[in-house]
Write a structure and sequence with these properties.
By secondary structure, the chain is mainly α. The protein contains five helices and no strands. It starts with 16 loop residues before the first helix and ends with a helix.
């Protein structure tokens, strides 16, 4: 917001599509791979930019609307999640914990996809728009608010106990 990539009215504390788009725009403007995730390289650039406060080139951005989950690389070794969920998951997250979340949602009737990647028995390790939608429906059904499709501490605790 202070760098001009996101309007202050969207200061909600939720890392959604608009925030992701703003991060991607910042990354592109600073020659960082545009993933929409704030890692060490982006964090360093954000800190440097805030110190310089050069915002004159910031442009408004629109939120992307992915329509499908990407297929996982069939040549990679399948991963299996064991243990507990230990991190927040959102659009763009990858890993065995994402696959475990998809398996959980599918098993509870909140199907990621009826066919292809994300479908029961074909869960993927990518958290995309379909996972977010199924998670949001699940959250709403069990009274988790906001039902945003963000897998944070409240939803993690619920899933681990059910």
């Amino acid at each position: 917001i202070s760098l001009g990539y996101l309007e202050s009215q969207y200061n909600t504390g939720y890392y959604g599509n608009l925030t992701e788009s703003a991060v991607k725009a910042f990354q592109t403007a600073h020659s960082i791979e545009s993933l929409g995730i704030v890692g060490p390289q982006t964090r360093a650039a954000l800190n440097a930019a805030k110190g310089n406060n050069q915002t004159s080139s910031a442009q408004p951005v629109s939120a992307p609307t992915p329509s499908t989950e990407p297929q996982s690389n069939s040549t990679s070794t399948p991963t299996t999640f064991t243990g507990t969920f230990t991190r927040n998951l959102t659009i763009g997250s990858t890993g065995s914990d994402v696959k475990a979340l998809q398996e959980y949602l599918n098993s509870k009737g909140f199907t990621i996809s009826s066919t292809g990647p994300g479908s029961p028995g074909n869960e993927s390790d990518y958290f995309g728009a379909l996972t977010q939608s199924a998670l949001s429906k699940f959250q709403s059904s069990v009274g988790i608010s906001p039902a945003s499709g963000y897998f944070g501490s409240i939803t993690r605790a619920y899933v681990e106990n059910h």
